[in-house]
Structures are given as C-alpha cells and as structure tokens.
Amino acid sequence: MPPPVASAFAEQPVPPWRRAVLKVGSSLLAADGGGGLTPRFALGLAQFVSANLQQGREVVIVSSGAVAAGRAILPRRVEADAALAARQALAALGQAQLIGLWQRFFERPVAQVLLTHDDLRNRRRYLNARATLNELLALGALPVVNENDTVSVDELKLGDNDNLAAIVAALVDADVLFIATDIDGLYTADPRRDPGAQPLNTVSELTEAVLAMAGGSGSTVGTGGMRTKLEAARRAGAAGIDTVLFNGRDGEVVRALAQGRLFGTRLHAGRTRLAARKYWLRNAPLAEGAIRVDAGAASALLGKGASLLPGGITAVNGGFRRGDMVEVHAPDGQPIAKGVSQYAAGDIARIAGRHTRDIHTVLGFHYGHSVIHRDDLVLL
C-alpha cells in the first residue's frame, strides 16, 4: 500500500505521458529574505524528474528564479518593483546560479535554453527552437528553459513563465504540463483569504467562471499567480495538452506524483493533441507559392502518411521562407496537402529530386531530412 498523503485534494491517477514539461516558479526556488536560491524544494522536484527519466520518459524544465538569484549577488539591494533594466541586470547575474542549482541534482548534462515569446511567434525561430530542444532530448540532456529576460521588453515585467511553459509544451509535443506551485491546487476561491474555498480535483473546461476563481500572486518573489497558471492551462489545452497543478512545497505530494498519484488539480485539454495540431494546420494562412511532387511522392503522402522528402519534388514556385505554410500539389497541379516548410523556396529548388543525404552537400547546411515533416503536414 502506498503511504497516505495529507491533502485536501482527492487522489487521482496522473495522466499517462512519455514527455512532459515541468514549470517551477520563483516561490519554490528563492530563499527567504532575498538570499538567492535554495535547494529546499528544488531537490524533491529534481527527484521527481530523475525518477521519470529512469523510466525512459523525457522532461523539459521551465524554471524561474534568475532574478531572485541575481538579487543576492548585487552589493546593493534592487527592489522587486525596480525599473525593467535593473531587473534585467539581475536576471543576467542570476542565470548561471539558476542553471548551477539544477545541474547539482543530475548526473546528466543540464542545458540552458533562453527564449522569449518573440522567438516562438516567429515561425523560423520557432522551428529552430523546436529542433534544438528535440536534439537535446535525443542526446539525453535535460533542457532547462527560461525567458531571455536580459533582452525581453514586456515578458519579464509580466512574469509570464507559466505561459512560456505552455508554449514550450506545445513546442516539444509534450503529453502533459506539470505546474509546481506553492498551494495545493485550484480552489473555488483563494484559500488564503476564504476559509470556505473548496478544492477542485478536475476541471473539464476552462470557462470564464473558472478563471474568475483565481486570485493574484501569492509570492513576493514571483509575479505570476493562479490566473496566469489557468491561462497557461488554456493555452496548453488548445494544443491538446492536459495541465496538472500541484504543491511543489509538499514533499509527500511530490513523491506521490513520482508514483503516478496526483493530489492536485487536473485541467483537461478537451481535445487530443493530434486534433489540435491538425486544426491549426488546416486553418493557418498559406504563403504564396507551392511545391509540386511526382506521383510516387503524392501516393506516399496520401496513402502512407509519409513526410515530404526532396527526392519526390519536381518543381517549386513562389518566394516563401522557412517556416511558412505552403501547399503541396500533385503532378496535375491539384492541391493535396499543406504544411510547414523546413526550407525556403530557393533552397528547395536546389535540392529538388535529390536524395536526403545530398542536402548538406548542395546547401552547405540542413534542417533535417524532410522538406515538410509528417507532423507538420495535413492532407486536403
């Protein structure tokens, strides 16, 4: 029998997953009194990650805490509401300490990945970020993602690592987004102010009424709150990814989570990842131009769910760029599919009809063997 857990939330199974994103906020990493970072709660979360890595699962950590770490380094104190430039300087100072904190818990290499929302809005940079994260996971590294606060404009002020975690979850095709917070989960009201607040074990749909239950930030070191966590869950849900909220300060809850037992709130996506991905692909705007393929490639796309390789391409027109959404045409010119192109039109023209092994020789670089990967393609 597993040990009992003292929690207001009922036990439920963790949704099945092979790849997950774990978001850890500043309130779980910052020492009391502005003293930098502490391993007090991070250790338990690292053990949760390690237990799952040993089972063959993959984890990406999205971690706050750089500003809190930097605040302990400066000889003079910078207040939490300081000017943006001062807080960006704190983030620059604290990044090394933040990565060092996580690295101490793992024998495998920890890789720092700094992103801004602008990186993820731009399709070409989005594809580059996705390729880098997937390669790091394939190499057995543990990616630790944070906002690139030193160059961001609004993101640091907003303290929006919750939504960044949701974006990263969609970026790496995660099965679930875990958000470690400093309360047990979602309640009908803020339990720190309303003793009558009731725990919500599951949320099937994130309506405005549910969002209204969220209070503000409960921490002096983090600028997010339950509202941003629910907004992140909504964003993840749009990509078909469930979100789990749990108390990262409660060692029993974290240990139970490593055993597949959740004491917290599960927010259901409402649609599958595949359905969400295909919906986006079907409705994303097209760039001007198209790729024409031969009969063999058309048959492979339509009948076998294959990726589009350069060998099956006969022609390309338009001036689209890497990351643009383009149509794929059959030999007779009829559109049969659309997808995100890994290469610009000019580059595709140079590798059309060639074997995948020739891509690097011809172009001097390559972004993978597929011109359009099957995960980025939908049939018309």
From TrEMBL:
One of its GO terms (cellular component) is cytosol. One of its GO terms (biological process) is L-proline biosynthetic process. The gene is proB. SMART domains: PUA (SM00359). Its main location: cytoplasm. Residues 289-372 form the PUA domain. This is Glutamate 5-kinase. Substrate binds at S64, D149, N161. InterPro entries: AceGlu_kinase-like_sf (IPR036393), Asp/Glu/Uridylate_kinase (IPR001048), G5K_ProB (IPR041739), Glu/AcGlu_kinase (IPR001057), Glu_5kinase (IPR011529), Glu_5kinase/COase_Synthase (IPR005715), Glutamate_5-kinase_CS (IPR019797), PUA (IPR002478). ATP binds at K23, T181, D182, T223, G224, G225, M226, R227, T228, K229. Pfam families: AA_kinase (PF00696), PUA (PF01472). It catalyses: L-glutamate + ATP = L-glutamyl 5-phosphate + ADP. GO terms for molecular function: ATP binding; glutamate 5-kinase activity; RNA binding. Belongs to the glutamate 5-kinase family. Its EC number is 2.7.2.11. It is found in: Cytoplasm. Pathway: Amino-acid biosynthesis; L-proline biosynthesis; L-glutamate 5-semialdehyde from L-glutamate: step 1/2. Catalyzes the transfer of a phosphate group to glutamate to form L-glutamate 5-phosphate. Keywords: Amino-acid biosynthesis, ATP-binding, Cytoplasm, Kinase, Nucleotide-binding, Proline biosynthesis, Transferase. It is an enzyme of class 2 (transferase).
